[in-house]
Amino acid sequence: MQCPPCPQCQSEYTYADGSLFICPECAHEWDDTQPAEESDVLIVKDANGNLLADGDSVTVIKDLKVKGSSSMLKIGTRVKGIRLVEGDHNIDCRIDGFGQMKLKSEFVKKG
Q1: How far apart (Å, rounded) are the C-alpha atoms in residues 80 and 94?
Q2: Which of 2, 57, 62, 66 sits 20 to 30 Å CA-CA off 48?
């Protein structure tokens, strides 16, 4: 069986490991049954590994200190209509009582 070339670096030295293909040169792993993903598509996952999209509603899973404020963002706070952005804080949203904020996806869950 001929393994496909790496979609990132085009290396021909890829190998199969179970259902995944692995490139030893750039360490990229992919599943060939899924269509190739566009490189400009932003992929953001919540704390449980669910994919997030613009407009989703999320719930805060940990009490978070708000920089520049004495109040905290409490666990269980619902955030509606998120927008995904690049960077360390990859969720841009508006929270009632706090205003515009940026959150890390690792502190929210979808739903």
Answers
A1: 8
A2: 66
Sign of CA dihedral 76, 79, 82, 88: negative
Cα–Cα dist 25/10, whole Å: 10
Q: How wide is the angle at C-alpha 52 spanned by C-alphas 46 and 54, nearest 5°?
A: 140
The radius of gyration of the chain's CA atoms, rounded to the nearest angstrom, is 19
pLDDT tens sequence for the chain (111 residues): 688 888 888 888 999 888 888 999 998 888 876 555 555 677 889 999 899 999 999 999 999 998 888 889 999 999 999 999 998 899 999 998 888 999 999 999 998
